[in-house]
Amino acid sequence: MRFQIKKIVLLFVFSCFLATPLLASDPVTVVVEETTIAEKTKFFLYGYAEGVDKWQEVSITLSDGNAKSLELTAETNKIGNWGVEEVDISTLSDGKITITAMLKDEAGKIMAQTTSTAVLDTSFSLVAFMNKHFAVTIFLLMVILLLLGFPMKIPLIAGATLGVYLLYDGDLSKTQFMIQQMMAGIRPAALIAVPMFILSADIMTRGQSAEKLIDLVMAFVRHIKGGLAVSTAGACAVFGAVSGSTQATVVAIGSPLRPELQKGGYKDSFILALIVNSSDIAFLIPPSIGMIIYGIVAKTSIPELFIAGIGPGLLILFLFSIYSVIYAYVNKIPTQPKASWGDRGRALYHALWPLGFPAIIIGGIFGGIFSPTEAAAVSVAYAIMLEGFIFRTMKLSDFYATAKSTGLVTAVVFILVGAGAAFAWVLSYAQVPQQLLGMIGISEMGQYGVLFVVSIAFFVGCMFVDPIVVILILVPIFAPVVKDVGLDLVLVGTIITLQVAIGSATPPFGCDIFTAIAIFKRPYFEVVKGTPPFIFILLSVAVAMIFFPQIALFLRDVAFR
Amino acid sequence: MNAIAGKRTNPILKTLNLIDMLISQFEGFMLAVGVIAMTVNTIAAVVSRFVFNSAITFTDELNVIFIVVVTYAGLSYAARNGRHIRMSAIYDAMPAKTRKAMMVVMASVTSAFMFFLSFYSYYYIVEVYESGRILPALGLPVFYIYLWVPVGFVVTGLQYAFTVVKNLTERDVYLSTNIKDGYSDTDHDIEV
Fold first, then answer.
1. Which end of chain A offers a freer environment for a tag, N or C, measured as fewer CB atoms within 10 Å?
2. Which residues does chain A have within 8 Å of residue B78's beta carbon, measured at their own beta carbons?
């Protein structure tokens, strides 16, 4: 009997176990695992459900704060996972979105439900946008600042700062790297040649050396048709052998010669264009500040660059002279009296001392005696000796004033060098060069193609910005490509130097034009009016150099190969 | 500068003007001395190499120091004298009132950037100081080179800030605290 009862109880318990799944199965649950909103309005939702058959429908409701809602459905898979992907939720309004997911049985009774939230933000994110268009954003910012007339250093610094901000996700403490680059930019030892050449040209211009060189050129070519104009171009070339900048040449040669040319019957628009463009010759004839900076940035031999600049410089001088002669014929400019051989002898005698400058600089570098920096130092010493002891035009206080003004010009240049280096660093860190050049497909262009692209880039750049800035920013951009197609870095450097010189004398915003406006106090239009023929000549020389590199490389090969 | 000093009798402003003038003279002095020093230094290197046949090892290191001093003393000196390389074509074409507004915006933004840079260049110096690097030939700590940098930025920032104040308080447009806008008298203080 007892066994009977035991059996019945056991059977009952056992049957209970068997029946449980049928009567009351596992509790039904639905869980939201993950919600994401991509590209502002694409909604993704993933979850799972338990205690239900497979292929069960999950109904999802999204509702925003304004009682607008969206109904979605999903289906569970074999193991209970479900999800919706790429649902456009742009009809909902911004803010908190309440997500309700529920499971219903066939009768429509809710078996389980869960809620979750997501935040919809369709507002425009500037940082995300700028990061996507990194290069465009930075260049746009710089162009705006430039056009507003900000001092040139600010567009560079602002561009670099914005770059750092975007690259490091708003972590401005990384600005330190930028400062580090600004310091590294002005550290190369070869840069010391820049203030040295500025100083020696400054001393010469204040003293009598520049005048004596002008007199010499005048004595020999004044009497030919258009002789005064030819003399001006010639004097720019001779002075260029002392000075490394176009602006110093405009001051040293343009200031004394402009009144003479006006007396000689030339139109002012021609004179101004002649002076501004002839100073380009000075930029090519060694020394040249542009070449020093190119040499440092591109890690190319500065002496070789210097020597390579002579050929194109003389070619430009020759073509300008021809144009001047033609201009004089067409406009019936009276010819100047011929200097006697006695006068010429005297002029040559007087100019002997100043002619020592080209001997020191070109001869010294050509002969491999001096490095450019040493040549610069020696030319300063020579200038001090000439003006202080031989001509006795300058007193100690004059030298102090000259040193101060040289320091000022140097500072203005070097702050740009520093800021430009920082900016170039940001660009290369963000791999902007690769993107830009990849976009125009430069790798399939071959040598001529690359040279043309390089020429155009530098020419256009200098129409707007200071040449030094352009060299600092663009040279690192093009360096890898130039290397890949196997171009001679010295040739590229010479072409770049010519292009920046042309660009800075070209309207609308070439900086030599503004130098001329400031020095001669003439309105903008008058300064640029006569430039087109000169620009044309300069550009044809540039094209000729691309197809006949020997113009630049012949002398280099004679000297160094 | 002198005109203001004469017009205003406020002792604080007078003192400020005096300090400003002293700073200006100090900057000019540093510029000239920096250039002279690097000239002497570079010439000495050449003489030593050719005459005594031995190169001076620390020439480049000294020159870096001078270059930094000249650059950052010159930065504020250039700001004080309104000597900027800038693209002024659009600015020049504007009427005086717009120019004034542009100048105020330009000077304030520039001033802000200068303070910003001085702040981070200070941190840069701290970093170089902590790294303990030493100039190999001179044996001096490397951070000495940069000591002038934050000072230069701060003084320049102040210059631009003063330019803002000056433009807001005076009738004319000022390129810097003592240079009026226009081509007639931009270079009465320094020559080109």
1. N
2. 408, 411-412, 415
Residue A465 sits at the chain B interface (C-beta within 8 Å): yes
Beta carbons of B35 and A189 less than 8 Å apart:
no
Beta carbons of B85 and A412 less than 8 angstroms apart: yes
Whether residue A175 and residue B120 make contact (CB cut-off 8 A), yes or no, is yes
Q: Which of B39, B67, B124 sits opposite A180 (nearest CB)?
A: B124
B65 in contact with A at a CB cutoff of 8 Å?
no
Q: In a structure prediction context, what are the per-residue pLDDT tens digits for chain B, which is 192 residues long?
A: 444 444 556 787 788 888 888 988 999 999 999 999 999 999 999 999 888 888 788 888 999 999 999 999 999 898 888 777 777 778 878 888 888 999 999 999 999 999 999 999 999 999 999 998 899 888 899 999 899 899 999 999 999 998 898 888 888 888 887 777 764 434 433 333
Least Cα distance to A552 among A491, A482, A486 occurs for A491
Q: Which of A196, A401, A509 has the CB atom closest to B89's CB atom?
A: A509
Among chain B residues, CA nearest to A510? B87
* Beta-strand relationship, A81-88 and A42-50: antiparallel
Query: In this predicted complex, what is the ipTM?
Result: 0.87
Residues of chain A scoring pLDDT < 50: none
The SS3 call for residue B176 is strand
The overall pTM is greater than 0.90: no
Q: Got the DSSP string for A319-361?
A: HHHHHHHHHHHHTTPPPPPPPPHHHHHHHHHHHTTTTHHHIII
Phi, psi of A423 (to 5 degrees): -65, -45
pLDDT tens-digit map of B143-185? 998 998 999 999 999 999 988 988 888 888 888 877 777 644 3
Which of the 8 DSSP states describes residue A261? H
Which among A289, A284, A286, A282 is positioned nearest to A192, based on CA atoms? A289
- Is A255 in contact with A519 (CB distance < 8 Å)? yes
Distance between CA atoms of residues B62 and B56, nearest Å: 11
Cβ <8 Å between B85 and A152: yes
Q: What distance in Å separates the CA atoms of residue A534 and residue A270, rounded to the nearest whole number?
A: 10
Strand partners for A19: none
Residue among B32, B87, B149 whose CB faces A404 most closely: B32
**Which residues does A137 contact at the CB level (< 8 Å), separation at least 6?**
A129, A130, A162, A166
The answer to whether A509 contacts chain B (CB < 8 Å) is yes
